[in-house]
Every structure is written in C-alpha cells, then in structure tokens.
Write a structure and sequence with these properties.
The chain has one domain (4-243). The chain has ten helices and two strands; from the N terminus they run αααββααααααα. It has helices at residues 12-31, 57-63, 86-97, 112-121, 133-146, 148-163, 171-175, 186-202, 204-222, 224-243, and strands spanning 102-103, 106-107.
C-alpha cells in the first residue's frame, strides 16, 4: 500500500542496500585490527504508522497473523560470525566505538570503525532536519487513529468482534496478542479470520487509509522544505552505499 509520504522515504531495497554497505564497511575496518565479526551496528527499521494493514480472510484461516509479521527490510543487525572471549569483545568494542585510540600499535580512526563507516555512507555536510518522512508518517498515523471517523469505524470493529465472542480494543491489540507465536494456532487462525471479516464489514481499512492520506498530504504541505532536503540526503546516502 503506497501512501503520500512514501515518496520521501527509502524503499525496502534501498534500506537493505544501505545497511549491507554499512555493515561491510564497518567490518572491513574491524578486519584491519583482526576483530571482524564481533561487534557492529544495529539500525532499526523506519518508524511506521499505527495504520492497520490489509488482512486477507482466506490467508488468515490458514496462517493467522503470520503474514503480517513479515518484514523484508534488513535491520542492519550484525550477524556475529567470530566466537570471541570477553577480552576480545571489550577490545572490539573500543575499536568499533573509538573509545580506544590505538590497538596493537595501529591508530584507530576517529569515531572508531563505526564512525569511519558512517562518514563513508552519510552525505557530506548534511543539513539536520527536525522531522523526516518517517517521523511525519508516524505522526499522521497517530492523528488518523484519533480522528472521529476512524474512532467510529474502530468501535464498529470492536462490536463486530465482541459479537463473535472476542474482546479487543482494536485490530492492533488482536494482532499483537502475546499468545500468538509461529506457527499459528487454531485459536489464532479463528480470531484472525474473524478480525479480517470484521475489518471488511466495517470498511475499517478503507476509512483509515483515506483519513491517513489526508493527514499525510497536510503534513507534506507543512514540511515541504524539510522533506525536499531529507529526500536529497537519502538519495546521496544510497548512492554512497552503492559506490562503497
């Protein structure tokens, strides 16, 4: 599902490209000190709006909420490949963060290997922005969730679920029920199927999307300059990653 602010955000493929290049540069630096594969960065996925996503009824019958948990974006979390002693972990952390100035007679780059990789990926002389597209998308989702039209549709969804014997305050609570685990259980499949049916009956998703699109367009108009700067900087970051 494409929303207006998506044009100012990195795609999943671009995020993967950036994260993989970032990790490669960090570990290439660490390898100069014989400390590769021990520590690294973790870059979290961009903030998402609390908008409820489409839930297919037939899919829910067989796999519950499992399909909604799929995230094809690499978080940039280091996959440790080298067993290390506590002493090696401490040494690697010092070299990675730059709190150690030299290691085995070699000077550590300013900011450590983390800083060296960041300098290669981040655009030079980047202009700080107060709120980027991810921040604004999260804000638009919050505004939409409190909008009277969405509140009314959510209440209708709650009533629909209650009529089937399930008590949840909204789709996200049902989806994130701590009882659910992969693979999905028969109980989860039943509730997810009822959830999908209630979303369809109440037209909840279409109402949420229409309202959120309106809020996103408002925020785009209010933050045109910041978004243009941010988009240019993201493009430079991806180009740097591809060329690294």
């Amino acid at each position: 599902m494409k929303l207006p602010l998506d044009q100012f955000r990195l795609s999943a493929d671009q995020i993967n490209t950036r994260n993989q290049a970032w990790e490669r540069l960090e570990q290439a630096c660490m390898s100069r000190f014989g400390l590769e594969g021990i520590v690294g960065s973790r870059r979290l996925p961009p903030r998402q709006s609390p908008l409820s996503v489409f839930l297919d009824i037939e899919q829910a019958k067989h796999s519950g909420y499992d399909a909604l948990q799929i995230n094809n974006t690499d978080s940039g979390h280091l996959r440790r490949t080298t067993p290390a002693t506590l002493e090696q972990q401490q040494a690697a952390t010092g070299v990675f963060t730059g709190t150690t100035q030299t290691y085995n007679g070699q000077p550590v780059p300013a900011g450590g290997c983390e800083g060296e990789a960041r300098a290669a990926i981040m655009p030079k002389n980047a202009t700080p922005v107060r709120e980027d597209a991810s921040d604004l998308a999260f804000k638009a989702g919050g505004l939409a969730s409190r909008d009277s039209r969405v509140v009314k549709a959510t209440q209708e969804w709650v009533a629909c679920m209650k009529a089937a014997g399930f008590n949840y305050t909204g789709p996200n609570q049902a989806r994130n029920d701590p009882r659910w685990a992969a693979p999905s259980s028969a109980e989860e499949n039943t509730i997810a199927t009822t959830d999908a049916q209630c979303r369809a009956r109440t037209n909840l998703l279409n109402i949420q999307v229409a309202v959120e699109v309106a809020y996103q367009n408002q925020l785009i108009n209010q933050h045109k300059d910041e978004l243009a700067i941010s988009k240019k900087q993201l493009s430079a970051m991806v180009n740097n990653a591809q060329g690294s």
